[in-house]
What does this fold into?
Amino acid sequence: MKTLLALLSLILPFLGLVSSNAYADILRCQALVTKAPQNVDIKTMMVGRDKDVRSPYCLVSGVMAQRMGVNSKLYAIQFELRLPNYWQGRFAYQFNGGVDGEVKPALGKMTGLTVSQYAINQGFAVVSSNGGHDARAYPEAGLAGVAAFGHDPEARRDYGYGAVQKLNPVARALVESYYESPIKYAYGLGQSNGGRMAMVAATRFPTMFDGLLVGYPGFNLPKAALQQAWDTQALHQVNENISRALTRRDLVVFAKKILDQCDGLDGINDDMVFATDACQNVFDPKVLVCKSDFDKHCLPMLKVAALMKMHAGPHNSKDQALYTDWVYDTGIRSNNWRMWKLESSVSDWSHKPISVVMGAAALAHIFTTPYTDVAGDIYSLENYLLKFDFDKDAPKIYATNNQFKESAMAMMTPPDAAKPKLTEFKQNGGKMLIFHGNSDPIFSVKDTMRWYDFLDFGLAGRASEFVRFYRVPGMPHGEGGPSADQFDMLQPLIAWVERKQAPQEIVAATRAKNPEITARMAGMTRPLCPYPAYAKYKKGDFLKASSFQCVVAK
It folds into this structure.
């Protein structure tokens, strides 16, 4: 290989096929293999520009922390590191979502960003990993196989926070070795479970990142998993086939009634509800109940009752809340909301929703102690949720035993979750931006609101000095819904970290390719306001963000 490269170094520049700089990049990328830390195996290759990355980059594929776990299964942290030629001294750890188990492309891709705004295209070296386990390692577990790593205590811990703790110093060393220069600024980027990980990092690893970008976080992930059993049971009371419990028309009617009662609360009727808090005080779902067989724009009492129960959140027989309640918002009619709660397009799942497949598997195998070894077929997974006991089974998210010495809640949430202050993160100059869709069907925006309220209370109203939180009306779990879901949260975070420019409102736009926006939402821009403020219409063209101002409800 060395002889071939030496020959190419003489021939290719002469033929004008490869520049000397490009050849130097190839050599530098190949040489990185010899600089890998001990017990870390990597492969490298130089890759040209592609549809996601705007400059050539050195692609590093690595394996570390290999070990034999329970059931004689091999565990390891697999990772990918992309080192772009256009480097601005920035490093990003990309926290992945779901139950991990695979290495996602290390792009720094986040909801709201266009391709040119991905972290890798803004001068970041980016790393991602499989979270310490392989989702394909348990084929015998069927559909539950993606969560069966939860039988291994260290795999659980790696999923909760351990993989980041182990991989981050390795990735940093490779970045600095490749560029022969220190990293100037380190960022953590994640949404969903990745957003949870970012919030955990702020407490567990307060000096690891200068900036954290958090999207719709599963902050109390094991608690949120209880909601999936709660929803399934509520829907099953309406129809044994939960996909038929609420039709698409039902949810359109429900969303329209929300608009009827709340759309104008922000000063203008535009098919979006920005005055979210006022809407919760005004909206009464009971008015949707049909009064007679001749009513058209209404729902049967049983369906309204199910939706009210779902929005109230899981409770035990003593009426104690086990998670949180939910916002009534227009994105309830989105395909995303339906996919999580009612039905998916996956034929291998018999079109059951994500909550019944991934949700049940995670709750049974990862988030409870001792785990329940539920079989990986649709019937068993759904039956587990239907028979879930909120008095006897729900406390298992806090339980430990001789095998699992940390509970799921202790591993998945920050140590200061109940009384957050983020003292060390703040003292280190850390900055955090959070965004969350009001119509998120899997992690309630109210849970994020409650966390911020506790943080602000503990800091005597000074949380906004280093944390800003933005709610996105109509947006479900990620992009989609009747929402303005195109926005750049990364640049404001960079400006805050690197130039001390604190963000205010962030302009969001509706996407022309979003089939779920209404006709009058086309071409619309809106300011996303730092919580607890919301965008209120003042005067001017209703399509323009400049016609609105951020106000706090009295």
Remarks:
- DSSP finds 15 helices and 13 strands in the chain.
- The first strand starts at residue 40 and ends at 47.
- The first helix runs from residue 2 to 15.
- Confidence is low (pLDDT under 50) at residues 1-18.
